[in-house]
Amino acid sequence: MVARLREHYGIRDPKVLEAMRSVPRHFFVPEALQSRSYGDHALPISANQTISQPFIVARMTELLELDGNSRVLEIGAGSGYQTAVLAFIAAQVYAIERIGDLAREAQSRIRQLEIYNATVKCFDGTLGWAANAPYDAILVAAGGPIVPQPLAVQLKIGGRLVVPVGPARDAQRLIRVVKTETGYREEDHGGCAFVPLIGQHGWRDH
Ligand code: SAH
Question: Is the pTM of this model over 0.85?
Fold first, then answer.
């Protein structure tokens, strides 16, 4: 998996490659699908959600430009796999998941792996997590119609927000927002397909 990330997908950040090598992805995948854990695809988890494709986990992590001092907010913890990858590199990870069962399971897997610098809570992540703001980096693992404004506000100057954004529920562009002294700079990092971001600054639940 790591050779493919490096050679086929061009992931370069050694910290990201090391994290992808170290976090046991099969631990986050439902038992019946475990033989496919290291394949080049997303996989279903419970509650109609997915564990993201390894490439997209690595690419989003690389775009966050983390180091050992980074404080990171993650929206859409799902299985907790991305949370564990972020925690391997960063100082502290605050993760939010709107589905209670997933949040509890993610937190329990993180603890079983003896990761102590990540915490998963259950609420609407489009509101951000103001109590721990500002953040060096924010990752959103679900696609919404717009960049959620509270998340941009909770970035430090120089901070990076990576978020899939698109006008339909099933296809997005991967957007990186960088907060500058005077405002925000936005970059487009290509097409992607995430499950919907549901919440006050996302899609409505239906
Ligand atoms: N990185 C995760 C991806 C999970 S899929 C993994 O690799 O396992 C995206 C997750 O975002 C889903 O679990 C979904 O429930 C969650 N989600 C959607 N809208 C959300 C919101 N407003 N706040 C928090 N989580 C949300």
Answer: yes
